[in-house]
Amino acid sequence: SKRDPIVVARKVTRSFGGINAVDVEHLEIPRHKITALIGPNGAGKTTLFNLLTGFDTPNSGDWEFDGKPLAKVASHKVARMGMVRTFQLTKVMGKLTVMENMRLGAADQPGESLGRALFKGLWGGREREITKQADVLLEKFKLDTKRDDYAASLSGGQRKLLEMARALMVRPRLVMLDEPMAGVNPALTQSLLEHIKNLKAEGMTVLFVEHDMQMVRHIADWVVVMAEGKVVAEGPPAVVMKDQAVIDAYLGAH
Ligand code: ATP
């Protein structure tokens, strides 16, 4: 079948002092699939996420999302274009309610601003639509009973769910999850996995960073391996996990 990647990146570099945190020659993220980005600590995974989503600026290189050039586009515009990400440490706002956090997610939508979303509650006629969309998502993520609670009262796993739900408020085509399983208790692990699989079933593309290889084997269609800023292997999980370069990359880290 013809390759139709949702993201294509070329010669992307980012260094900090003397360290080449990211030095990617070529990277493609397959559309409508779940791709795992793996690699030892310090491999550059989070830095690559930051670059692709406009939270950091590359030293060089460019990339396209859905055929549109996206290098050096600001993060809120990246989100509006349909590419959202979550963070290793969630950016859920504890002093806001669950619903207010969801509204903030909608602030990344065209025509909205953070100020309007947060303080004025004016939505240019879209308030009802946004609230309804948030309620549907909260029910789906089983956070509807927490709707009016402060986000600070949520467990670590519930915060991960809220962050994922909030990211979906922009109706993205690509969802990037940075260590979605970290800090999630076993009771919520299975449901998080199901949510990630559902994103794909609903037509989205997923890219996630993960250290848990069992999870990678379980849900990834494709695996990209980074080590020392470079892509050292990619392919289906069963093939990549047997690759000597991959094994070396991990052993090299210990
Ligand atoms: P982990 O699995 O531990 O999250 P990672 O693969 O996400 O690691 P990065 O966090 O992207 O790796 O880090 C890549 C390299 O860049 C590391 O050597 C790190 O110390 C360095 N680095 C990342 N961000 C910065 C920064 N803001 N300032 C200085 N160095 C940085």
UniProtKB/TrEMBL annotation:
Keywords recorded for this protein, A-Z: ATP-binding, Nucleotide-binding, Transport
Entry GO MF terms: ATP binding; ATP hydrolysis activity
Residue span(s) of domain ABC transporter: 7-253
GO CC terms, sorted: plasma membrane
Protein name: ABC transporter ATP-binding protein
